[in-house]
Structure formats: structure tokens, C-alpha cells
Amino acid sequence: MPQYVVFLTDVPGVFNRPPTEANAVLLKEIVVNEDGSWSIVKPVLPHMNNAAHDTTGGMATKISEAAMIAKFGIDVYIVQAGTDHSLKALNGELKEEMPDNWIGTIVRNSKFFEGSA
């Protein structure tokens, strides 16, 4: 079984709204529960959950697929192709430690989320 999966995109990751819109925020970390539901944990956004998140088009499919993979304990990195950030993801450099300056979205199982109790 793979340790991680990388989705390469034409934008830096998953946003709370289309990234071309003003005040769009990159969602750094999403956790998936055993039932397949997911929630945004980084950054903490008031009044924001998966129902409120505008996942349309290709991103909706990516989130759905990433959630299915993460349920098995496999981290999924969604990152812009052709960047140093994508190279770090592809080379497995993010599995041990996620640098604060990494630009992308990680989708992981809630069992492995540092903030879960």
C-alpha cells in the first residue's frame, strides 16, 4: 500500500472559494473521518465546513477521491504542478514533517491528525 498520493493541479491546492476571487484562502489541512465526512483544520475559518466549501468542477472530484484514499490512512497532497512544493510532495519529504512554508493542501485520516483526541 502506498504511504502517500500526490494530486498535481494548476492551482496551489484547495481553496475556500475559487482562487481567482478576492480573499480566497488556501486550505492547508483537511481531515477525513471514518464515515467519509471531512473537515478543514488548517486554517481555522469561522463558519466553514465541507458543506459551506465551494468545491466545484475538478476540485470537487479531487476532494472526493482524496477523502476515499485518506480513509485508508494514506496522506494525499494536492499541490500545484511544476513547483518546489510539488517536488517535496513527490519525493516524500512531507511524510515526516510538514514545513510551515509548504504551499498545498494535505488530506489525511482523522486518526493520524495531530490535533485529534
Q: What does this entry look like structurally?
A:
This protein is 18% helix and 26% strand. With 117 residues, it is of the alpha/beta class. The chain is globular.
The counted number of beta strands is 7
Helix content: 10-25%
Quaternary state of the chains: single chain
Order of helices and strands: EEEEEHEHE
Mean pLDDT: 83
Strand content: 25-35%
Poorly predicted regions are 50-54
Distance between the termini: 26 Å
The largest sheet is: 5 strands, mixed
| Coarse shape | globular
Strand order of the largest sheet: 1-6-7-4-5
**Tally of separate helices:** 2
Category from helices, strands and their pairing: alpha/beta
The radius of gyration is: 13 Å
Features:
globular, five-stranded mixed β-sheet, 2 helices, 117 residues, alpha/beta, two-stranded antiparallel ribbon
Task: Briefly summarize what is shown.
The chain is built from 2 helices and 7 strands; from the N terminus they run E-E-E-E-E-H-E-H-E. The chain has 117 residues and is α/β, with parallel strands linked by helices.
